[in-house]
Amino acid sequence: MTSTGTADSTCDVVGLGANSVDYVYMLPGYPQASGARAKMRVSAHFLTCGGQMVTALATCSRMGLRTKYIGTTGTDDNGRRIREELGRWTIDVTDAIIRDVPNQFAVILVEEHTGERIVLWDRPDGLRLREREVPAEALLSVRLLHVDDVDQDAAIRAARLARDRGIPVTSDIDRLNDLTEELVASVTFPIFAEHVPPALTGEHDPERALRKLRRRHDGLLCVTLGANGAMALDGDRLLYVPAFKVDAADTTGAGDVFRGAFIRALLDGRQPEDMLRFANAAAAVSCTRVGAINGVPSFEETLGVMAAESHQPPSPS
Asked: Would you write out the chain's pLDDT as a tens digit for each of its 317 residues?
């Protein structure tokens, strides 16, 4: 295990979580166990970098924020590849840890007509970031901490350290286990994947699920709804912002881009409804491009999508 040390420069966003090298295969349809789609030719394939934390940080970086990554990478070619990619995005890796195991990777099958995808992944247990390895000094001069739910012990410790210092904490909560509720309670702005609030509350309607979660958390609660946009509960006020309509090429990483843009909007001091709209616009741009990190939009591109929609003529009744 090695680390490149700790930098003393300040940054806007520290992100603690997972990275991945993605093997993306574009297919003319989803595979099936039998019939015409039991065998099919791959339309195109390529290798790219991603993972929920890296994609969110790349979004922050492209939108003008100074970023740092805390997490683990492997010693294989994929580990070297992800570290080089982080460098290209000017993401500080001085607190990233290198482990003598293969890096996380994913095989992503993208249905080329809809852009919908299936993700198959593997991550060696040796890549787990331990709670004691969270570099507390990295949170001394930062405006915001973003955590995912891959190494939850480490994420919870980092979130508590940050909040004790008055630093806001956003999250990417996509899975459930025994620590999920503790992680939710530890962050300032829980951002859930669509399937999580129903699983936590037993309420399948997203509004009812958020209102039930309000009993456990008094902050802004947000849930991404895929092609339907995003919803949030601000106090008792429900906010719903529909998605921007685009011709999707690949939806991989759209939720991660949403979170990165949400962070930029939050640090800009935007109001919650405008934060959701800005994040939706960024996610929409990402869906028009293939690959997670390849789809990251600029701040100007995101504003352009918002401006274009505001100038569209009203739909006929």
From this structure: 444 344 445 799 999 999 999 999 999 988 888 888 889 999 999 899 999 999 999 999 999 999 999 999 999 999 999 999 999 999 999 999 999 999 999 999 988 888 888 999 999 999 999 999 999 999 988 999 999 999 999 999 999 999 999 999 999 999 899 999 999 999 999 999 999 999 999 999 999 999 999 999 999 999 999 999 999 999 999 999 999 998 888 888 899 999 999 999 999 999 999 999 999 999 999 998 887 788 899 999 999 999 987 655 444 43
Place of tokens 């997203």: 206
CB 107 within 8 A of CB 25: yes
- Locate 74 and state its tokens: 């492997």
d(CA 251, CA 113): 12
- Residue 36 domain-assigned? no
Assigned domain for 210 exists: yes
Rounded distance between C-alpha atoms, residue 49 and residue 51, angstroms: 7
- Look up the CATH number of the domain holding residue 260: 3.40.1190.20
**Residue 231 is part of which domain span?**
2-19+51-102+128-310
Counting the structural domains of the chain, the total is 1
Residue 28 lies in a domain: no
pTM recorded for the entire structure: 0.91
Among residues 249, 213, 250, the alpha carbon closest in space to that of 233 is found at 213
Q: How far is CA 184 from CA 48, 133, 162, 256, 290, in A?
A: 30, 21, 14, 17, 31
Give CA–CA dist 297/97, Å, rounded. 28
CB atoms within 10 A of CB 153: 17
**Are the beta carbons of 295 and 254 closer than 8 angstroms?**
yes
